[in-house]
Structure formats: structure tokens, C-alpha cells
Fold:
Amino acid sequence: MSILVVGLDMVGVMRESSYRKEPEPAQAAVFAEMAGAGGISVMLKRDRKYLRDRDLYILKQIVKTKLNISMPPTEDIIERAIEVKPNSVTIVADLASSDSPPATVDFYSGTVDFTSIASRIKGVGVNVNYFIEPEVEAVKGALKAGADGVVLNCTAYADAPSVDEARKELDKIDRAAYAANKQNLTVIAGRGLHYSNIQPLVELGNIRAF
Structure:
């Protein structure tokens, strides 16, 4: 059975925009788990905009299901993840602007030693996922880079301008999920998903979490 992982980034955005100490991401995590969430996810950015280091430590203490931290592969954030020890981290591309949406990892650029980063993080008992495009080649790249799982980018599916385009994107997700499952990687689908477009993905039957 698939689980629902609730992302709390927008709670941090609301807190930042109100210039107050609330709403509190930790409190939102409690409510989400009480409502049946199978996991909690937050993104830690270079400039700590919206979510802060303090939030991670609090969430680590209170989350009863599973805590995931999405993060760019920068040294200070890697060290923070090793210290906090969430259940998993999801590595995203390192972008110059913190206001840009998360971007998928390019394993073939040669600028980042993902294998070494994964080894360090896994060495303290934390699972490593990579945020990738729903492509078989990206799944292969993640596997070589020491992945325990992959988070498939569903933005193109969610933003498809027609039913036919949505079906094409759904087929791509299905092929990538099949390839990942074949390699015993945990498959997670994310970005752009909501109650009106998630059902076709659930029906694929090969995605562990959303």
C-alpha cells in the first residue's frame, strides 16, 4: 500500500510572510500525522529561507512516522543532515536562486560527486533518494550514485495541457517506476500532485509514496 508524505514547505512560507513565529511547521506535522500521513517532508535551502535548522531538530524529535529532508548537495547542509539523522534525504539540484522550484539532479554533469555524498549520508543510517526526471537513464544514474530510492518529478504530468499529453507523461512515469522497482529502489512520486490528479498514479501500482 502506498503512503502519503506531507510537505510542509508552504507552512514555512506563510510563517516567513507573516514576520511572526507562526504557523509552526512542527505543529503542522503533528496535525498531518494525526490525519493519517505516512511521512513528513521539508526542504532546507542554502539561505535557510522558509525552513530553518531549528525546525529540523524539532521535527526530528516529534515526527512519529518518517522524516525526509530535501536538500541541495552543499557541504553545510550535508553536515546538518548527518547531524540531524532524518529517516531519509532527497538530494535535489543546487540552484543559485532559493526562490526557484526544486530541480532534478543531473548525474552526468560531472560537477558533483554524488556517490561520495551518498556514502557519507548512508554511513550514519540515513537513506538517500534523488529527485529525478521520470526517465530510465536518470534511474540508472541514481542507482550508480548510491541511491536507496528516487523521487520522480511529476510536474510535466501535472501541467499537461491535454489528456493525451497527460497519458504520455503517465507512461513515462510508469516506465521509470518499473525500472526503479526492478533495481529494488524505493519509488516516490512528487511535485504538482493533488487530490484530482493523483488517482491515475496510484492505479499504476508501482509507486511506494506520494
Summary: The longest strand covers residues 127-132. The chain has a mean pLDDT of 93.
